């Protein structure tokens, strides 16, 4: 009894230390498991995005980034919120392409201040935006800012933006800028395509999406094959089936999207009248999830998670010069 009383404080102290260490390890494991990214999108939104390439949305602009350098994607990011989008997280980011090399509208020379002045005038206003909905859970948690709220959905690329009666068209800015090959090495992008599992569960009109991957990234340069018979003209561009060769020689099926107004979209439209059934292309692409695959999985779910088949959509920006 005396020994137990003497050891009591020591025992409780070390048990507490062990418990704290266990909780710390568990928290660390949860952090490592952040590869399991979970977010939700209204099923009605996925349906609309499956039927069109470019979609409209009214967005209140909360802030903007600077003009990114060429090696950092050459874009400007506009953060915002929309009463018409009820996703979780609810943030949106609008991303026009190639602003670091494009002169402002009506000018012949690039001046960074022109873009910053334009962006400053948008903050706090509600604009009518159109663009390609890119679904990608890279910024669900962590640091956020007025230009980068927590989000899983972007208009990436942004194609038009209208404030009041003044409309700006960014569709001609969608191309592969010289000397830019994306931030992801092709082999890393292929590992993402082959080793990621995407699951969808339907709850109260929402698609709860789980993205299980060890890596995540944005732009990369890939060689892929277009299946001509699958090319479909939709509002805002073309969508088609494609294939990417895996690192083990296997074939990875993907959906491909080209955006109206871009040189690549015009090139794809011409493929439909050419002989042959398969066409290879080397191009700058942006990794995204396929709204078609997510919508199909959500329709199959009765509450339980359904693994989305062929869950990736590559947004094609431009061929190599």
Summarize the structure.
With 321 residues, the chain is α+β, with helices and mostly antiparallel strands. The chain has helices spanning 2-32, 43-51, 112-122, 186-195, 263-271, 291-300, and strands at 36-42, 55-64, 78-81, 92-94, 126-139, 151-163, 166-169, 197-203, 206-212, 219-227, 232-234, 237-245, 251-259, 278-289, 306-307, 312-319.
Strand content: 35-45%
Question: N-to-C SSE series?
Answer: HEHEEEHEEEHEEEEEEHEHEE
Question: What is the number of domains?
Answer: 2
Overall average pLDDT: 90
**In this structure, how is the largest beta sheet organized?**
5 strands, mixed, barrel
* Helical proportion, percent range: 10-25%
CATH topology of the largest domain: OB fold (Dihydrolipoamide Acetyltransferase, E2P)
- Quick one: CATH class of the largest domain? Mainly Beta
Low-confidence stretches: 1-7, 10-16, 18-35
> Which shape, going by the Cα principal axes?
globular
Structural class: alpha+beta
CATH architecture group name of the largest domain: Beta Barrel
Q: In angstroms, what is the radius of gyration?
A: 23 Å
Distance between the termini: 84 Å
Spatial strand order of the main sheet? 2-3-4-6-5
Number of strands: 16
Number of helices: 6
């Amino acid at each position: 009894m005396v020994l137990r009383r003497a050891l009591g404080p020591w025992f409780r102290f070390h048990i507490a230390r062990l418990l704290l260490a266990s909780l710390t390890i568990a928290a660390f494991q949860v952090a490592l498991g952040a590869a399991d990214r979970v977010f939700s999108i209204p099923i009605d939104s996925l349906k609309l995005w499956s039927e069109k390439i470019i979609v409209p949305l009214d967005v209140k602009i909360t802030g903007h980034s600077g003009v990114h350098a060429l090696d950092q994607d050459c874009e400007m990011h506009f953060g915002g919120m929309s009463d018409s989008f009820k996703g979780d997280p609810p943030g949106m980011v609008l991303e026009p392409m190639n602003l670091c090399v494009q002169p402002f509208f009506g000018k012949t020379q690039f001046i960074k201040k022109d873009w910053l002045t334009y962006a400053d005038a948008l903050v706090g206003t509600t604009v009518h935006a159109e663009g390609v909905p890119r679904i990608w859970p890279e910024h669900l948690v962590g640091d956020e800012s007025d230009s980068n709220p927590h989000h899983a959905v972007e208009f990436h690329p942004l194609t038009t933006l209208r404030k009041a009666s003044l409309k700006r068209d960014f569709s001609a800015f969608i191309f592969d800028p010289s000397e830019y090959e994306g931030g992801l090495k092709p082999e890393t992008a292929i590992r993402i395509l082959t080793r990621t599992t995407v699951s969808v569960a339907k709850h109260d009109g929402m698609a709860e999406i789980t993205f299980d991957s060890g890596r995540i990234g944005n732009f990369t340069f890939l060689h892929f094959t277009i299946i001509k018979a699958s090319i479909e003209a939709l509002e805002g561009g073309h969508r088609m089936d494609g294939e990417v060769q895996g690192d083990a020689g296997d074939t990875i099926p993907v959906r491909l999207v080209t955006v109206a107004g871009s040189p690549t979209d015009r090139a794809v439209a011409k493929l439909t009248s050419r002989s042959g059934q398969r066409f290879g292309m080397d191009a700058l692409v942006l990794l995204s999830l396929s709204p078609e695959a997510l919508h199909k999985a959500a329709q199959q779910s009765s509450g339980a998670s359904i693994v989305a088949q062929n869950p990736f959509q590559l947004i094609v920006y431009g061929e190599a010069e």
